[in-house]
Design a protein that fits this description.
The chain is mainly β. It is built from no helices and 30 strands. A four-stranded antiparallel β-sheet has the order 1-28-27-26, with no helix packed on it. The chain has a four-stranded antiparallel β-sheet with strand order 2-3-4-5, with no helix packed on it. A four-stranded antiparallel β-sheet has the order 6-7-8-9, with no helix packed on it. A hairpin with a 2-residue loop joins β20 and β21. The N and C termini lie far apart (45 Å). Keywords: WD repeat. This is WD_REPEATS_REGION domain-containing protein. InterPro entries: WD40/YVTN_repeat-like_dom_sf, WD40_repeat_dom_sf, WD40_rpt.
């Protein structure tokens, strides 16, 4: 039998089991320490509300207490962002109305809306300073405006109808965009001028884009079931590797931004959460049994790197503690098409279709499969240089 990543091992224990925090699917969240209030805060965003929570640690468990709620979202969320200090949450609903929500105190969220018209605000994210809003518009292209909706700058862009993801790096150096056709482009974070393209990385829609904390690496997740890691050096992008384990659409991913960690986490419609090691390109851990076959719609590392949070389509959250990383060899297929996934006779897997009609592979580990703990991996590998695409 091939060596496989451990499934639901005790190396990553559940410290908060499935806990109902929303009535609808969770879109995203962030767990961080609020230095001003001196407590750990969780911000959760679902299809109909935004909530804040106080998180307390008790030995090997955590407790979550609801503090406040913004419940004026009427028609779902298509894009969102949370500021680095956790004070501002923005989201655009299915009617292209922007909601700007301020966390003004421990127990209060204040919100207002900006409506520029149909299709005038779609993909949104905050600029690195948290003081301006980036959005895509069918008439203005790429645009930046203030919290009152007053335009600051715009740049024509004919690919707006095909954009499916947008993300600013934390240092404001880059803006990355992805399209339904699998292409990725990077722009200067100040001028919105295109700097370079990343071509032929994925065959299908880009659903996820994430930068590491220093904007040296860009992670992309696609509907082809794979993730790709790109090094960004001297105005050039070099693809380092693909990550292949998931067998459904990639729904969410997050870097571990604590220190120089080389871990990231991803979720998929295959109802699995995977922790990856960018040094090796291998899956270090797979979570699946704890979700009760509920699709995981959002994943995130806490900012201190101690927890992995998973949110589901039923509004539940599960929290795992990161004690130490594990890494077992996993065959990496350098392909962006998983239509040809095959199981050998000794894989002991079952093939089935998930709710989205995607091929899923259930692989159970025998009792003899060992977990091999190693030190937490540090920093992704140095890339091989390759030509850029202007």
């Amino acid at each position: 039998m091939k060596n496989l990543a451990p499934v639901d091992s005790d190396v990553y224990p559940v410290v908060k089991p499935s806990f109902d925090i929303h009535e609808t699917a969770i879109v995203g969240f962030d767990l961080f320490h609020d230095d001003e209030e001196d407590f750990y805060a969780l911000i959760s965003i679902s299809q109909d509300s935004v909530k804040t929570w106080k998180v307390s640690e008790f030995g090997d468990e955590v407790d979550i207490t609801e503090l406040s709620e913004y419940n004026k979202i009427r028609c779902g969320v298509q894009s969102y962002d949370i500021s680095q200090n956790g004070k501002t949450i923005i989201l655009v609903d299915a009617m292209n109305v922007l909601h700007i929500i301020k966390r003004t105190s421990l127990t209060k969220l204040e919100g207002k809306t900006v409506d520029k018209g149909f299709l005038e605000i779609s993909n949104v994210c905050l600029t690195a300073d948290g003081l301006r809003i980036f959005a895509t518009s069918f008439t203005k292209g790429l645009q930046i405006f203030d919290f009152e909706g007053v335009d600051i700058m715009s740049e024509p862009y004919d690919k707006v109808p095909y954009l499916t993801a947008a993300k600013f790096s934390r240092n404001g150096k880059y803006l990355a965009t992805g399209t339904e056709r699998g292409s990725i482009e990077l722009f200067d974070g100040m001028s919105l001028k295109q700097t370079f393209k990343i071509g032929d990385s994925h065959a299908k829609r880009i659903r996820v884009l994430q930068f590491d904390s220093e904007a040296m690496y860009l992670l992309a997740g696609s509907d082809d079931g794979t993730l790709s890691l790109h090094a960004l050096l001297d105005g050039c992008a070099t693809r380092l590797r693909y990550f292949t384990y998931h067998t459904g659409l990639i729904l969410s991913a997050s870097f571990d931004v604590a220190g120089n960690s080389a871990l990231f986490v991803s979720s998929s419609t295959d109802k699995r959460v995977v922790i990856w090691n960018t040094n090796t390109g291998e899956a270090s851990q797979v979570f699946k049994k704890c979700f009760n076959r509920d699709t995981i719609t959002a994943v995130n590392f806490s900012r201190n790197g101690r927890y992995v949070l998973s949110g589901t389509e039923k509004g539940n959250v599960i929290i795992h503690r990161i004690l130490e990383a594990v890494s077992l060899p996993l065959e990496v297929r350098n392909t962006s098409n998983l239509d040809d996934v095959q199981l050998s006779d000794d894989d002991n897997g079952e093939l089935n279709n998930d709710v989205n009609g995607n091929l899923a592979v259930d692989v159970e580990l025998s009792e003899s499969d060992e977990e091999v703990p190693v030190n937490r991996p540090q920093t992704p590998p140095s890339p091989l240089r390759a030509p850029c695409i202007p």
